[in-house]
C-alpha cells in the first residue's frame, strides 16, 4: 500500500478510457484516494464501480470540462476545500484524431491544444498554489511517443504532446523548491479500443507493420499504469522533469 493516504486527481478517468481506467485501478489498489475527473458523470460512476472496494478510501467524482480553461483554478481550489490538499495529479484526458495539413482549420488547433496542453499547464498552475498540493507531491502528464516522432496526418496531436515534454522540464525546475515533482509518461500504441479502431482502419498488412515497429510488442494499459505508479510513488523520489517512454522499443529504432 505504497500510496496509502495519498490524494490524487486523475483526469480522463471515464471508464471507456482503457488507460485512464487502468491508472485509476492501479493507484486505488495501492491505497490512494482518487478524484475522478471527466465530463460524463455516468462514465465516472462506472470507473468508481470498478475500483477495488476498500473501507477507508473515499474516492469522489469530479465532472468537469477541462476546455473551460478559466474555471480550472477555481475547480481545483474547491476540490481542495472539500477533500484536502493533493499529493498527485495524472492528466490523462486528451483530444485525439487526425489533422492532415491539406484540410487544416484554425479551430482544430485549439481543439488539440486546449485540452492536451493548455489544460495541463493550468492544472500545474493550480497545483503550484500555496496549500493546494503537499510537499512530496508528484504531477504526471500523459504524453505520447507521437510527440517525439513524425506521424503523417497527426501534426496537431503530435505537437500538442511534444509541448508536454517541454512543459514538465520547466515546471519541474519551478516546483522543485516546494518538493513537487513533475514528469511525463509517453506511451506509443497501447492495446485496447483505440488500437483496435486503428488496426481496422489500416488493414492487415499495415497493422502487422505497426505492431512490428514495437520490438517488445505493444504496451497494455496496465504497462502505462505501472509507469504512472512508479512516478507517483516514493521509489522515484529523485526523478523530475523527465519523460518515461512506455513504447515497447518503438522510439529506439
Ligand atoms: N490509446 C493509445 O493508444 C494512446 C497512445 C499514446 C498516448 N495515449 C495517451 O494516453 C491518454 C489516455 O488515452 P485514451 O485513449 O485512453 O483516452 P482519451 O480518449 O484520449 O481520453 C480519456 C478521457 O478523457 C476525457 N475527456 C475528453 N475531453 C475532456 C474534456 N474536455 N474535459 C475533461 N475530460 C475530457 C473523456 O471522458 P469524458 O468523455 O467523460 O469527458 C475520455 O474518456 C491520453 O492522454 C492519450 O493521448 C494514448
From TrEMBL:
<dbReference type="InterPro" id="IPR002347">
    <property type="entry name" value="SDR_fam"/>
</dbReference>
<dbReference type="Pfam" id="PF13561">
    <property type="entry name" value="adh_short_C2"/>
</dbReference>
<dbReference type="InterPro" id="IPR036291">
    <property type="entry name" value="NAD(P)-bd_dom_sf"/>
</dbReference>
<keyword id="KW-0560">Oxidoreductase</keyword>
<dbReference type="InterPro" id="IPR020904">
    <property type="entry name" value="Sc_DH/Rdtase_CS"/>
</dbReference>
<protein>
    <submittedName>
        <fullName>SDR family oxidoreductase</fullName>
    </submittedName>
</protein>
<comment type="similarity">
    <text>Belongs to the short-chain dehydrogenases/reductases (SDR) family.</text>
</comment>
Amino acid at each position: 500500500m505504497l500510496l496509502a493516504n495519498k490524494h490524487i486527481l486523475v483526469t480522463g478517468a471515464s471508464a471507456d478510457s482503457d488507460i485512464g481506467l487502468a491508472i485509476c485501478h492501479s493507484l486505488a489498489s495501492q491505497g490512494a484516494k482518487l478524484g475522478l475527473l471527466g465530463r460524463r458523470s455516468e462514465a465516472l460512476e462506472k470507473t468508481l464501480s470498478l475500483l477495488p472496494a476498500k473501507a477507508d478510501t473515499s474516492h469522489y467524482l469530479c465532472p468537469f470540462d477541462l476546455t473551460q480553461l478559466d474555471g480550472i483554478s477555481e475547480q481545483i481550489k474547491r476540490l481542495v476545500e472539500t477533500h484536502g490538499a493533493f499529493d498527485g495529479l495524472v492528466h490523462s484526458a486528451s483530444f485525439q484524431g487526425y489533422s492532415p495539413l491539406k484540410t487544416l482549420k484554425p479551430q482544430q488547433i485549439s481543439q488539440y491544444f486546449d485540452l492536451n496542453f493548455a489544460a495541463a499547464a493550468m492544472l500545474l498552475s493550480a497545483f503550484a498554489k500555496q496549500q493546494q498540493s503537499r510537499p512530496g507531491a508528484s504531477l504526471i502528464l500523459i504524453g505520447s511517443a507521437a510527440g517525439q516522432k513524425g506521424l503523417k496526418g497527426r501534426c496537431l496531436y503530435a505537437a500538442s504532446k511534444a509541448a508536454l515534454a517541454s512543459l514538465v522540464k520547466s515546471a519541474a525546475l519551478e516546483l522543485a523548491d516546494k518538493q513537487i515533482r513533475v514528469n511525463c509518461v509517453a506511451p506509443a500504441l497501447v492495446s485496447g479500443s483505440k488500437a483496435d479502431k486503428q488496426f481496422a482502419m489500416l488493414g492487415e498488412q499495415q497493422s502487422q507493420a505497426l505492431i512490428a515497429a514495437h520490438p517488445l510488442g505493444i504496451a497494455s494499459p496496465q504497462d502505462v499504469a505501472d509507469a504512472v505508479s512508479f512516478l507517483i510513488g516514493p521509489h522515484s523520489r529523485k526523478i523530475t522533469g523527465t519523460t518515461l517512454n512506455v513504447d515497447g522499443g518503438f522510439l529506439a529504432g
